[in-house]
Each structure stands twice: as structure tokens, then as C-alpha cells.
């Protein structure tokens, strides 16, 4: 893709992918490609030699990255996309699909990976996030994307952005599967809740639950009807043994990602074959016992319970995302009067507001200092910015959308911050 450098400096800032000329490719085709990986194991590799070990062990695909997650944790620093030369070496070394990781929000890394001809792109929290406000708008790319989730809200927001495959986030590089189990159980619970809402309350209940989760009502209804996500869902983060892989499969995953658990163990080739076999025969306890025998020393793990919140990778880049800009008609079709009243009552506003119920302008509020400051919510080095500059209904809608679309753990903090500050009386 070419750019006119003579006009780029004068162009207005753009938060798109830079792929405005690329037509949206078929989501059905992308999701269908991911279906071919069901029941398989995808292994993290850093070079051609590891890729060959993975292919010989029976992996359905390999994930190219500059360092395995355990090394990223140990060495720190900024983790980026793998060197294109390494990716080419891996592509030439194996015949199975090759995936590659890109930083969250770094659409240029995604453009490079697409140009290299990788089969899938993983917009991964394992790498250092490049954008703390937006994920990549994946629907504009021809290559399918994989994204992580911790609950149904996150999963459907990533699918709305164009992700054709979902995985649990877990805690990569720890060898502790507890977070992956937690995320999968949470996802199963949320899907069961959506299914019950559809059966008991129909479309009205689905729309209400969609507003609560911050997702598109159509996607939520489709998920409830299917009783599962509309795309393939793999387990990832902390899988280190054949038993771990079988556990995640029995919880309902379609396959398994394994990273540090293989190439940080004593016998990588033997462990890789055992995990592939366990994933295939995940309900046969006798086969699982055979798979787990004589594998050598497992990777030295890190207990997630001993980690500080800022050390966890799954909490990175809690951003509103492009789902805020896509398919959100059901989320903003009218705001609750009580919400608008509470927000106008508490929020630091500079100008007179428009009444939600009558459309008339409200009485001017008293001038408040520092009304133009953005609301910054900081947690685990992630940030969501919501600015309150005008006391108009349009601004109230924007804040309300942000509260809906933000990740679940932030919704309360956003609403609290939005309604914090000097009190003002509500008048019509």
C-alpha cells in the first residue's frame, strides 16, 4: 500500500488501521479457516528448529514470536512482533499454518504480518500493548485474527471487531493453569446466562443483557442460540502438562495453545507429542495416564496467587476498542433518564445542559475549576480516557457508551469517575 507523503503531514489524525482502501473480507471464510484447527494444539516457537519439533509432534499450527512468554516475563522490557526474517525461516521450515503475534492496537505490525503471508495474526496481550485505547480493527484485514478474552463481554467485543478465533487469556509464561480455568468457567457461565435470558425473556432480555455486558445484541443472541461462541475458542495461558490440556478440553475448549510449557521443559519433543495426544484423547483417562508418564522435568512455574496485579499479562490494555464504533446501535438507542440526571447532577460540567426528557436547555451550572481535564482511570498500567468538556446530551451519550463498552472490571470505576466532582443541582 502506498502513501502520498506530500499530504500526510496535513492530513487529519486517523485512528483507523490505515487500511481504508481495503474492503472488508468475508468473516465466514476467516472463521471457517479457524474451524480446521479444532481439536489441535498450537505451539509457540521462536525459530525454525522449534517449529520442526512442533510439526513432528503433531501440532496443527505454530505461533512465531521473538521470545516465549516465560522469557518475556523474566527479561522484561518491551516485547514486540518477531523479526520478519525469523518468521520467513519458520514458514519455509514447516508445512502447517504459521501464526504470529502483534501488539495490541499496533495495526502497522499487523499490516507487516499480512504482507509476510502469515496464516493468522494474534493480537496478543503477551506483547507490550501499543495502544491503550483501541484494539486493531480486524475486519479490514484479509488475514484472520486471534484474540484473548476473560469473559463473554471481551470475547464478543473482539468478534465485533473482526476476530475469527478466540482464546482464553490465562497467564502466559507461568505454567499455572488456574487463570485459564477461571476465564473458561467465566465464559461458560456468561453463555449459560445469555441462553437463560433468551429463553425466559426473549429479545428484550437479550438487549438488556447486551447493554450490561457492553456487546452487540445480535452477537449475544447468536451466542445464546448456539450455546457457545460463534467462533472457535482455544485455551491458552499456563498449559504445561498433558493433564492441563485435557482439563481445558473437558471444560469446553476447541483446542489448546501451548507456549513455554514445551520448550522450557526437560524434553521438549516428548512433552509436545504427549500434549498433542492428550488433547486428542482428552476423555480417556488411561491414555492420559500413559501420556503423562516419563516426560522429564516440567517447566519451573510461577504461582499466579503469588503475583502482584501489575505482573499479570491478562490485565493489559483494558481498552474500549473498536467495538465502540461498530454495531452499537442497540447500545445507544436511548439513554436512561436516571443515568442522565445522575451524571448531570454530579459531573463537572462547564455549560448548560439539554434536558433528556424535554429537549429544553437546563439552567446554567456554576463555573467549576479544571472542567476540561480528562478523566483518566489507571490500573495495571492501562488507561481509559473519557473527557467531559460540554454539558450537552451528546457528551452524556459518549460517556455512557464508554461505560458500556469498557471491560467489565472497569465499568464501575468509569461511572464513579464520571459522576465524581463538585455537586450541582439538577433543574429543568
Automatic annotation (TrEMBL):
Keyword Transport annotated: no
Pfam families per UniProt: SOR_SNZ
Class of the enzyme per the UniProt entry, highest EC level: lyase
Organism of derivation: Monosporascus ibericus
HAMAP family with a match to the protein in the record: PdxS
Annotated function: Catalyzes the formation of pyridoxal 5'-phosphate from ribose 5-phosphate (RBP), glyceraldehyde 3-phosphate (G3P) and ammonia. The ammonia is provided by PDX2. Can also use ribulose 5-phosphate and dihydroxyacetone phosphate as substrates, resulting from enzyme-catalyzed isomerization of RBP and G3P, respectively. Also plays an indirect role in resistance to singlet oxygen-generating photosensitizers.
Keyword Lyase: yes
Pathway(s) the chain acts in: Cofactor biosynthesis; pyridoxal 5'-phosphate biosynthesis
UniProt-recorded name of the protein: pyridoxal 5'-phosphate synthase (glutamine hydrolyzing)
UniProt family annotation: Belongs to the PdxS/SNZ family.
Residue ranges, annotated region (Disordered): 1-22
CDD domains: pdxS (cd04727)
Residue ranges of domain PdxS/SNZ N-terminal in the record: 27-236
GO MF, any single term: pyridoxal 5'-phosphate synthase (glutamine hydrolysing) activity
Known catalytic reactions: aldehydo-D-ribose 5-phosphate + D-glyceraldehyde 3-phosphate + L-glutamine = pyridoxal 5'-phosphate + L-glutamate + phosphate + 3 H2O + H(+)
EC number: 4.3.3.6
GO biological process: amino acid metabolic process; pyridoxal phosphate biosynthetic process; pyridoxine biosynthetic process
Keywords tagged on the record: Lyase, Pyridoxal phosphate, Schiff base
Amino acid at each position: 500500500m502506498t502513501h502520498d507523503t506530500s499530504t500526510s503531514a496535513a492530513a487529519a489524525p486517523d485512528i483507523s488501521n490505515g487500511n481504508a482502501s481495503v474492503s472488508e473480507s468475508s468473516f465466514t471464510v476467516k472463521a471457517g479457516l479457524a474451524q480446521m484447527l479444532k481439536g489441535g494444539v498450537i505451539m509457540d516457537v521462536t525459530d525454525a528448529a522449534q517449529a520442526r519439533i512442533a510439526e513432528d509432534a503433531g501440532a496443527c499450527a505454530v505461533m512465531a514470536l521473538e521470545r516465549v512468554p516465560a522469557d518475556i516475563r523474566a527479561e522484561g522490557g518491551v516485547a514486540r512482533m518477531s523479526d520478519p526474517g525469523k518468521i520467513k525461516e519458520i514458514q519455509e521450515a514447516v508445512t502447517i499454518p504459521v501464526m504470529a503475534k502483534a501488539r495490541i492496537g499496533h495495526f502497522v505490525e499487523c499490516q507487516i504480518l499480512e504482507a509476510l503471508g502469515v496464516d493468522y495474526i494474534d493480537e496478543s496481550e503477551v506483547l507490550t500493548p501499543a495502544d491503550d485505547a483501541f484494539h486493531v480493527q480486524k475486519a479490514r484485514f484479509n488475514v484472520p485474527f486471534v484474540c484473548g478474552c476473560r469473559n463473554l463481554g471481551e470475547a464478543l467485543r473482539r468478534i465485533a471487531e473482526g476476530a475469527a478465533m478466540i482464546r482464553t487469556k490465562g497467564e502466559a509464561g507461568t505454567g499455572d493453569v488456574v487463570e485459564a480455568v477461571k476465564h473458561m468457567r467465566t465464559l461458560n457461565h456468561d453463555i449459560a446466562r445469555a441462553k437463560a435470558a433468551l429463553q425466559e425473556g426473549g429479545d428484550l432480555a437479550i438487549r438488556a443483557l447486551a447493554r450490561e455486558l457492553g456487546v452487540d445484541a445480535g452477537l449475544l443472541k447468536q451466542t445464546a442460540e448456539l450455546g457457545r461462541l460463534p467462533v472457535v475458542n482455544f485455551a491458552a495461558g499456563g498449559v504445561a502438562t498433558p493433564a492441563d490440556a485435557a482439563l481445558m478440553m473437558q471444560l469446553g475448549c476447541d483446542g489448546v495453545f501451548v507456549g513455554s510449557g514445551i520448550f522450557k521443559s526437560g524434553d521438549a519433543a516428548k512433552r509436545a507429542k504427549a500434549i498433542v495426544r492428550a488433547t486428542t484423547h482428552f476423555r480417556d483417562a488411561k491414555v492420559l495416564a500413559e501420556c503423562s508418564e516419563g516426560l522429564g522435568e516440567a517447566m519451573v512455574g510461577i504461582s499466579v496467587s503469588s503475583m502482584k496485579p501489575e505482573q499479570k499479562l491478562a490485565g493489559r490494555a483494558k481498552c474500549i476498542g473498536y467495538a465502540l464504533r461498530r454495531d452499537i446501535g442497540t447500545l445507544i438507542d436511548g439513554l436512561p433518564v436516571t443515568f442522565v440526571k445522575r451524571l448531570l447532577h454530579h459531573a463537572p460540567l462547564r455549560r448548560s445542559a439539554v434536558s433528556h426528557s424535554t429537549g429544553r436547555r437546563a439552567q446554567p451550572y456554576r463555573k467549576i475549576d479544571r472542567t476540561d481535564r480528562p478523566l483518566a482511570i489507571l490500573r495495571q498500567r492501562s488507561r481509559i480516557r473519557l473527557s467531559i468538556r460540554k454539558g450537552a446530551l451528546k457528551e452524556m451519550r459518549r460517556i455512557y457508551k464508554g461505560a458500556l463498552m469498557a471491560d467489565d472490571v472497569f465499568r464501575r470505576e468509569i461511572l464513579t469517575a464520571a459522576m465524581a466532582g463538585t455537586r450541582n443541582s439538577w433543574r429543568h
